What we know:
Elements: E1 6-7, E2 21-24, E3 30-38, E4 41-50, E5 52-61, E6 75-76, H1 80-83, H2 93-108
Antiparallel strand pairs: 1-2, 2-3, 3-4, 4-5, 5-6
Amino acid sequence: MLSDLFHLPENDKELLPVEEWFYELIWCPSQCYYHLQRNGVDYLLYLRWRHENPWHAYIIKNTASLEAMNKENAVWSEDVFELYNVQYRDEQVEMAKEKIVSLFHEFVGKTPEQ
């Protein structure tokens, strides 16, 4: 069903709710977005798949909307899956989502006190 492939905000400027996945799972590119906050800082977890395996994963600091992820103050990590030698095929998107959240907690910290 087409509605299973898309879950996006009304517009790119809209702030994404915290800890809710947004996605467009089309043939190419497929993308997933997840907004988190730590110590008053906004982060966007970004998964991207293009033409071939594997999924790529990025942690983008200072962003809470799709538009903001491409602004000057957004700080992109390297491909976190590549750094950790993690690979997921296109159909393993749920596993990739779980892993990027787990790596975020390892990379940034679990609680505001850390």
